Amino acid sequence: MKPESVPSSMFSEETRALHGELSAAAVAFLKFAERTPEAFEKHRFGKFEESPLMYYELHRWPILIDERRNRELEDVSVKLSRLVKRGPRLLLGGDPALVSDYFGLPLERARVAVEALALTEDARGVLSRGDFIDSADGLKCLEVNMMAGLGGWETALKAQVVMDQPVLQRFTQEQGLRIQLQDTLRAFLAHVLDDVRRTVTWEGECNLAVLFPDNELPDPVGVEMATLLLNTTFGELLEAEGAKGEVLIGTYGEVQDAEGHCFTMRGRRVHAMQEHDARDRLEVVGLPFDARVRAALSARTLCLYNGPAQELLDDKLNIALLSENEDAPTLSAEERDLIRQHIPWTRRLLRTHSLRGGERVWLPDQVTADKREGLVLKAGRAYGGKSVLIGRSMTAEAWDAAVLEALASGGWIIQERVEPRPYHFMRDDGSVGPHILIWGSFVFGERYGGTMVRMNPMGRGKDVVNATQGALMCALVVVE
Question: What's the gap between Cα 43 and its chain centre?
Fold first, then answer.
């Protein structure tokens, strides 16, 4: 539904100034929307939103950023991803006993994870996505997700379908804008190709296996569509290298042993594996498979995403590890500044003393119900927005109960709530208002993979902004 008339003062000067920090084009779009009722029409992106590869709804308006803002996202996300991967070695000495104690892992699993980090140069090739809030004090990293099956890879497709709307085509033509579409999928596949060339003896071929548990292969139609999408892009990259190969989507049970710690799948040599959803990794892949792939890693016959190191890396305790050690002498001055500037105060929830604001405090006293407004409680190993408890959205009784349960069970973090900057977008009813934005920046090894943006309207939606809980996706576009 669109308003009958669009008031010329819909966006305040403060709102325009804030959007101007994204790009001049972002301000131009606000002005365009004020004089263009068609910009407020309800719209669904049928084929995109009905595809079995998608599980979320797209917002009609794009986020338009310039190259300066894009470089900022790239710089911060790549550096923080690198630091999280280095954290167990720099801050826990790579000691399995210390790692086991910090992350609450059995000693043997900690030892295997530490060994994997050493074998792969601090998980050099790991796939990750950092989730950021843009605050008045700059970008703040809420968590870094390091698992291979991250959501939101369709950045180029989202941007394309949003920008293909006639009203947005008209806007870009009026402004003379040049559009750059970030392509996360291409960045990932380019990373795989580079990683294989660097790690495995190169024979002019690169085959990637995307693996699911034997009883959890996605819908066949979705598998067929994903295979076509992946191989179209991968084929272009391989052709440019004069190489051959393909992406194979299947199950762990299809992977066969070959001579020299190698693997095959459907008769093809496998050079790289993406364990698509292995958060409880050993339970998913099984001990025998884990032993085989670790032998392949040692022999440098395989690139594995993300493998045994995921036991440590895909845990929100990693942000607490950095925050708790922001003054550690084992970190460089740049790394210490990176933590102070971009990571909010975060601690493991324990009955212990800690530092806050330069003072030594008893941590349970910092998380009482009367202080919950400025706090967020998170389970370290949960995902999809699960077990993220926003203090200001809870009653005092519910908060106290959650804190007691978290203290008893272990593995939880407490984090200072970050106030998002109020970027304005259209709401469902055709009005405009401030939204909470989560900027999810992909990093593959040392390669920036673009940013996906999720959003909820402030005061009308959930404080937990996650696509599985109904948040909208917003296309991010770099403009010149």
Answer: 27
- 221: three-class secondary structure by DSSP: helix
CA dist., res. 143 & res. 347, Å (int): 12
The answer to whether 310 touches 283, Cβ cutoff 8 Å, is: no
The predicted-structure confidence for 34-53, as pLDDT tens digits, reads as follows: 999 999 987 777 666 667 67
Token match 């440590």: residue? 312
CB-CB contact of 67 with 480 (8 Å)? yes
The strand pair at 412-416 and 375-379 is best described as: antiparallel
Task: Indicate left, alpha or beta for 384 from its phi (over 0: left) and psi (-120 to 50: alpha).
Answer: left
What count of residues does the chain have?
480
Contacts of 126 (CB under 8 A, 6+ apart): 81, 85, 120, 146, 305, 306, 309, 310, 313, 445
Provide the residue ranges of all domains of the chain, joining segments of one domain with +: 345-416
Beta strands in 276-387 (DSSP E): 303-305, 346-348, 353-356, 359-362, 375-379
Beta 127-135 vs 63-65: how paired, if at all?
unpaired
E strand or H helix that includes residue 48: helix 46-49
Helix (H, G, I), strand (E, B) or coil at 303: strand
* Tokens, residue 247: 């992406």
User: 1 pLDDT exceeds 50?
Assistant: no
CA distance 241 to 193: 9
- The conformational region for residue 9 under phi > 0 = left, psi -120 to 50 = alpha, else beta, is alpha
* Helix, strand, coil percent content, the chain, rounded in steps of 5: 45, 25, 35
Residue 55's SS3 state is coil
Query: For residue 237, what are its two tokens?
Result: 């990259």
Share of the chain above pLDDT 70, in %: 93
CB-based burial, 77-112: b 16+ in 10 Å, e otherwise: bbbbbbbbbbbbbbbbeeebeebbebbebeeebbbb
Alpha-carbon gap, residue 111 to 95, rounded angstroms: 8
φ/ψ of 37, rounded to 5, equals -55, -30
Which tokens in the block code for residue 75?
Answer: 């710089």
